[in-house]
Amino acid sequence: MTTRKVRIGSMEIGGGNPVAVQSMCSTKTKDVKKTVAQIRRLQEAGCEIIRCGIPDMESAAALSKIKKDIKIPLVADIHYDYKLALAAIEHGADKIRINPGNIGSVEKLEAVIKAAKKAGIAIRVGVNSGSLKENAAFKLTHRSGNGRADRMVASLMESLGFFEKNGFRDIVISLKSSDIITTIDAYKLAAKYTDCPMHIGITEAGTELGGIIKSSIGLGVLLYSGLGDTLRVSLTAEPEKEVYAAYRILGALNLRRRGVEIISCPTCARTEIDVIKLAHRVEEMTMNVDKSLKIAVMGCSVNGPGEAREADIGVAGGRGIGLIFKKGIIIKRVPKNDLLKVFGSELNKLLKSRD
Question: Same domain, yes or no, for 312 and 286?
């Protein structure tokens, strides 16, 4: 699906642009020092748009200071108080995220739209299944067969009608639920009604393990269906893990390549090395590599270089030794205790050769 282009700070989403990766700060926004430090770490990890919660006026005022010290677009997340939205816009937010259903009266929503239009910034119109406006006036001519997803889309379309009636089109939409099927059904149905760029995600997906599983399924289905212009993997974990997971999902679908893809074998009776520990160590040491590489971690010489010949570099267990190989060819045999150290050295050589 080709959506309309919407500008967010220095970048555009929609209109065929690559799917942009987002995250959200876990710091108190009013703590400028900690928030800037976290955003800089996220920038290094590949985050392209960052969102901050705005629970009070002090947080809104902090945006102007934060923005001076970061390089990526800054989004203000607003709930309930329209005055916080106005203050966030005044202090330089590149986009605001609101749920029209909890902002208040028509007059308050009109004030937010007017301020955003004057500032030339976009608004993400978010509809969550947990804070859904029931009995929306918009009448669906298409339905998904999922009652909650249908109500989400009807609520969204009613809001979009109000925004466009007020002459505002710089809109990004989101239709999130913690239920994967409801989320998928809602986005697919919305695509029949609007060409607004889509921010996709599974809200409140869970902890690192469970959340990545749910997000991979939900986002994978949507992305493979051609839906999604920007995404966030929502995890109860460090925000850097969200960015890491996002790029792995995009890479698995050949949509974007950033960082390493790790191929690792399951354990079995042939394993001649602690492959679980080794794979985790390799993943940790390569998490912030921004070059596209395929790395193999194999448990034995049987399933080692031969089966992982597509890997740019890899390690495998051998009898009393460890093997380091490139494109299926063994380049070094080293004592097992030295395997990770020597692998790190060879990896650094490979990365330097790619510069």
Answer: yes
pLDDT band with cut points at 50, 70 and 90 for residue 29:
very high
Mean pLDDT lowest among 148-162, 185-199, 318-332: 318-332
Domain that holds residue 344: 260-354
Strand partners, 51: 24, 75
Return the C-alpha torsion angle 277, 44, 119, 153, nearest 10. -20
Q: Identify the CA nearest to 172 among candidates 230, 215, 130.
A: 230
Residues 11-20 have pLDDT tens digits of: 999 999 999 9
- Helices (H) and strands (E) counted in the chain, each on its own, are 11, 15
> Are residue 208 and residue 336 in the same domain, yes or no?
no
Q: What is the CATH number of the domain that holds 286?
A: 3.30.413.10
Residue after which a domain boundary falls, among 217, 252, 287: 252
Residue 33 has pLDDT above 90, yes or no: yes
